[in-house]
Amino acid sequence: MNVAGQWRFPALRGLMTGLVLGVCLGAAPAQATQADMDKLPVTSPNLCLACHTSESPGAGTADLNVFGVDFLNNGRMWDSNLAQLDSDGDGCLNGVEVGDSDGDGYADGNVDEQAGNPGVPGNCGSGSLVDEKTWDALKAMFDGR
Ligand SMILES: [Ca+2]
Ligand SMILES: [Ca+2]
Ligand SMILES: [Ca+2]
Questions:
Q1: C-alpha 69 chain-centroid distance
Q2: How far is the CA of 135 from the centre of ligand 2 (A)?
């Protein structure tokens, strides 16, 4: 997102940066808001692309991918029901791809990036095999010795 760097006037640059961010984070009710995105415990690196077919969805280009549709149909909530679906049918559950296997809103223990894209078939990732509770239990075992 270095488009703004081409602008010669700081005020314009600020305006453009605001627009670019605004398109993604969205303020209009029909758009995904930052609040929607924040419901996923892990958003990087897919960000908008986790739910949309466009990297910078705007009002006219905010088409949802299959996971975005499921998220919308789930009341725009991330939960265990949505985590146990495989929206894009690539064999990896949404929870594994997002990095929150059980869908409780807390990332799996050793995860800070989405393993795959829950809305793009074939983009699957290895995922974490342990949820954060198991991870904490394992850590506690090692820390205790
Ligand atoms: Ca999948
Ligand atoms: Ca979790
Ligand atoms: Ca996928």
A1: 14
A2: 10
| Residue appearing with tokens 């009002």 | 59
In angstroms, rounded to a whole number, what is the distance separating the alpha carbons of residues 103 and 82? 7
Find the ligand nearest to 119 CA: 3
Q: How many CA atoms lie within 13 A of 131 on its CB side?
A: 13
Q: Could you give the CA distance from residue 95 to residue 85 in angstroms, rounded to a whole number? A: 8
Any idea which residue has 């415990």 for tokens? Answer: 41
143: DSSP letter: H
Query: Which H or E element spans position 119?
Result: none
Ligand nearest to the CA of 116: 3
Express each pLDDT in 71-93 by its tens digit.
Answer: 999 999 999 999 999 999 999 99
What's the 76 CA to ligand 1 centre distance in angstroms?
18
Phi, psi of 52 (to 5 degrees): -115, 160
